[in-house]
């Protein structure tokens, strides 16, 4: 099925595979953020779902010079004040949780920055002259993660919270362009890692594990399985896994219709690497043998990008194997309408 190009192009009517393969273009986008360097005690980014993915990635790379918190809620942290930077991130610009949090943040005196492709957030940014990064539109939020990451590091570079990370990310465009070549639809299943993994996942609930470095990437795999594949999936990370979920594999349910994926990085702490190996040994016969994915790349950022894009392709192929269009998220749209009513 995955080698039938006619079927793929018909089912992937919105060209999600093409969008995944063109993500190298996203890191070249420029937002012309003009701010002055400023001292902050902390940064809070309010965002939900795919709109928070860029922030999660940024916590692993590049990291920040001050505490950085992602708020996935209607409310804001109590510590937010006039020494805080508050970033409202919503791809659509209409996410109700983010709009509510923004209204509360405005009362604290925090410096406000907005990231969106339009909607109410753009209207607010223009009305109140907030610093605004306008993302290209027309995508699902999960497919615009690198647009969001580039915008975020342009903002943090501008404020002096990171140093030259926007240019460092842009310099990875050629790397991103080349790394997708083995996973495209034209490459047959044999030897195409993305297609091979997708076939192993058919009909199973997916559980993704990683260490702290690849944790935001592992979470993106989970989201991509949920939204691209319309497939149930979970994520957890080491070492926390060994303190609770580890034991859960040993008994119930006795029938385990799961697929386990281990995302591994050569930059993992050696103790994390050992935990993966000891866990595999002790759970042998008690859970499915993990699919081991070794991140490729010369540095942490390259390994994060390689693993993230692989997960995108895997989840898209899993959707196609289920005879599904990977683009729409109809049930989420229905939920929004019900809430609006």
Describe the overall structure.
With 341 residues, the chain is an alpha/beta fold. The chain folds into two domains: 5-11 and 185-321, Glucose-6-phosphate isomerase like protein, domain 1 (Rossmann fold, 3-Layer(aba) Sandwich), CATH 3.40.50; 31-174, Glucose-6-phosphate isomerase like protein, domain 1 (Rossmann fold, 3-Layer(aba) Sandwich), CATH 3.40.50. 42% of the residues lie in helices and 14% in strands. It contains 14 helices and nine strands. The chain has helices at residues 5-11, 16-21, 53-60, 96-106, 119-128, 145-159, 165-170, 173-179, 193-201, 215-227, 245-248, 270-282, 300-321, 330-340; strands at 42-46, 68-71, 84-89, 111-116, 131-134, 205-210, 233-237, 258-264, 291-294. The protein has a five-stranded parallel β-sheet, sandwiched between helices. A four-stranded parallel β-sheet has the order 7-6-8-9, covered by helices on one side.
